[in-house]
Structure to design on (400 residues):
């Protein structure tokens, strides 16, 4: 299918989102942001838990407004015959199905890969679970928190003398959502060559391990086990957060040697540049106390605004430590339209993160925020060809 110039790049792609909390639905959101038609399939009486996750306004879950954007919402009970039959009819029209049930659940409902691929040989079935489809942990219940623990992330996060630290948000799920969207597009690219769909097996414990860097290789080759270092780095210094005279905080990084030298000139400690150990990041990291004292004492005598201006003039790398209030008014984010406004029938003007990246010719867009539970059921199923009597039978059965 030829997509007109300027049209979102995934226009014409149909995705069935059967997943809940959070990796699978996030992948579907990202596909929808760039034009895919995403149909969110929820249980008639048990909506996606993200609708009630976190703060709400007037009884409307705000997380769902973000996660459910660009999705049409329908209800089907897949454990009932009518729900299963309807899903198979939908799958016959789709390109992608994303699910995150425990391994064996679709098969229990007679909706396994054999049935789905028979209905649509070009389908990509994307299975997102904590531990993958096989192995000793496959059937355990699991969430992103367990991936953050198992992967080594928590073990290296926090201060050296403090407990391992878990993130206060869905880090592993979000990384897996990004990876799942990439996996779906990779499988679709293969389908373009072969004409056949396939199964994507995404284990949430794996993508977070990939972004942690070469820890397995370090251990394999050197027996090296990375430890908790707080905000410091074993690879360069100065690298830390520093408090300003007015109670603000800034972060400084010196991954490049030239930047490290600029920072020391700026804070009046050019003498340290001549030290033999200053020549490499790893050697500087072994003298972190000296460098932190030099940088931290200079920053502590100035306001955050003064520090940022001085670092910018010196072409040294610095950023303010911002909370969401600062993010909403940050001029760089404003220039990029990173936080954009969506008109929502429930809440009016609604601000949220924009699509993940910009394309010069075929940009993505937020067409609407998350819709009410089952709002599009009748319309979607009518488009599928179900008659009023078939819809009535689904309702009588409790499958819709």
């Amino acid at each position: 299918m030829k997509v007109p110039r300027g049209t979102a790049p995934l226009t014409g792609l149909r995705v069935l989102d059967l997943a809940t909390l959070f990796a699978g639905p996030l992948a579907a959101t990202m596909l929808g942001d760039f034009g895919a038609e995403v149909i969110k399939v929820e249980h008639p009486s048990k909506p996606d838990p993200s609708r009630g996750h976190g703060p709400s306004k007037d009884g409307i879950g705000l997380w769902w407004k973000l996660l459910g954007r660009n999705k049409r919402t329908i209800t089907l009970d897949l454990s009932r015959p009518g729900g299963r039959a309807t899903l198979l009819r939908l799958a016959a029209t789709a390109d992608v199905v994303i699910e995150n049930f425990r391994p064996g659940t679709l098969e229990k409902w007679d909706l396994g890969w054999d049935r789905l691929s028979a209905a649509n040989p070009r389908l990509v079935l994307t299975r997102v679970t904590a531990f993958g489809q096989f192995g000793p942990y496959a059937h355990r219940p699991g969430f992103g928190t367990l991936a953050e623990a198992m992967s080594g992330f928590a073990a290296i996060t926090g201060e050296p003398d403090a407990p391992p630290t878990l993130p206060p948000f869905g880090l592993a799920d979000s990384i897996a959502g990004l990876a799942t969207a990439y996996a779906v597009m990779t499988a679709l690219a293969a389908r373009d060559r072969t004409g056949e769909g396939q199964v994507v097996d995404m284990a949430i414990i794996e993508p977070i391990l990939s972004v942690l860097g070469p820890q397995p290789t370090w251990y394999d080759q050197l027996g090296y086990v990375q430890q908790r270092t707080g905000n410091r780095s074993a690879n360069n210094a100065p690298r830390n957060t520093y408090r300003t005279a007015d109670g603000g905080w800034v972060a400084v990084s010196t991954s490049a040697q030239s930047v490290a030298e600029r920072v020391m000139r700026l804070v009046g400690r050019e003498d340290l540049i001549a030290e033999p150990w200053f020549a490499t990041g790893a050697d500087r990291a072994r003298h972190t106390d000296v460098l932190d004292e030099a940088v931290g004492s200079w920053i502590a005598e100035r306001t955050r605004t003064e520090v940022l201006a001085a670092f910018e003039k010196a072409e040294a790398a610095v950023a303010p430590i911002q909370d969401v209030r600062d993010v909403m008014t940050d001029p760089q984010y404003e220039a990029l339209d990173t936080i954009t406004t969506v008109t929502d029938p429930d809440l009016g003007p609604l601000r949220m993160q924009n699509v993940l990246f910009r394309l010069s010719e075929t940009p993505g867009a937020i067409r609407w925020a998350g819709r009410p539970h089952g709002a599009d059921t009748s319309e979607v199923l009518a488009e599928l060809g179900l008659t009023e009597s078939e819809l009535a039978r689904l309702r009588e059965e409790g499958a819709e």
